[in-house]
Amino acid sequence: SSEAESRWRAAAGLAQVRKVEAVQALGSALSDPEPFVRCAAAQSLGEIARQASEAAVRVAAGQAVLEAAAAPEAGTRAAAADAVAAWKDNAPLEPVLALIRDADATVRAAAARALGLAGSQALPVVSPALQQALEDTDAEVRRMAANALAWCRDTSSCGALRKRLSDPAGTVRAAALRALARLDSRGEVSAVLPLLEDRDIAVRVEAIRLLRLRGTRDCIPALAALKDDPAPVGEATLGALAEAASEDIARRYTPWPMRLLPRRRP
User: Fold this and answer.
1) pLDDT (tens digit, 0 to 9) for every residue of the chain, 266 residues total?
2) CA dist., res. 81 & res. 110, Å (int)
3) In contact, 250 and 220? CB cutoff 8 Å
4) How many CA atoms are closer than 13 Å to the CA of 107, on its beta-carbon side?
5) Where, residue-wise, is CATH 1.25.10 in the chain?
6) CATH number for the 1-88 domain, one of 1.10.3470, 1.25.10, 1.10.10, 1.10.287?
7) I need a surface site. Which of 9, 143, 188, 214 has the fewest CB within 10 A?
């Protein structure tokens, strides 16, 4: 409606007003009935808190987050987590550490995202919460937890992420592969090779991408078997990705002088 759009514009516009009054207005907007208004309010609130020079503004923002995190409506609690995600460094993590155990899966997923974006400086408390979220009953929470561990650069989570390679949800398997690739983890190759035949194309793509970065000579035959796979991946095909991965792995085992020679044309 036009009224909801006006509230959305107002919430978005307050991002540049770094005053306590603006924070208080945005705190109220975190409980707006419209999700897109709550989203704008959370983004603006986090941006103000992140850039504010006055301690009073940051204190007011923290209070707004605490109140929203304790709200009876799940949408408002999720908005509190979104505000922490937008706040990033120096955001109050206590509310989202509680929200990651919320009864509502949407709230838990938002809390996992917030911990990933705001919690890299507090890994001793954030990492256990996110690794526990990898075992959540909801697939979206597990997927977001895998993403969050990668954003935090939490290398201690590689073992927990490796377990998610057999997750029943393809979205989680793919997220775990992306996270392991980003964390520069070693030792996944044997666990990743079977995923080249996964029923979910997104999982097969992420498996190829990880092997392109970490694969050994032993991976080349399995990748070569996919070179004629016509499944579309953006403007390329799965087969083209697999072939490029094989070439990159082979080049890693080629002596440096040979790498400088032009590639032979087919």
Assistant:
1) 799 999 999 999 999 999 999 999 999 999 999 999 999 999 999 999 999 999 999 999 999 999 999 999 999 999 999 999 999 989 999 999 999 999 999 999 999 999 999 999 999 999 999 999 999 999 999 999 999 999 999 999 999 999 999 999 999 999 999 999 999 766 678 899 999 999 999 999 999 999 999 999 999 999 999 999 999 999 999 999 999 999 999 998 887 665 555 654 43
2) 6
3) yes
4) 22
5) 1-88, 186-266
6) 1.25.10
7) 9
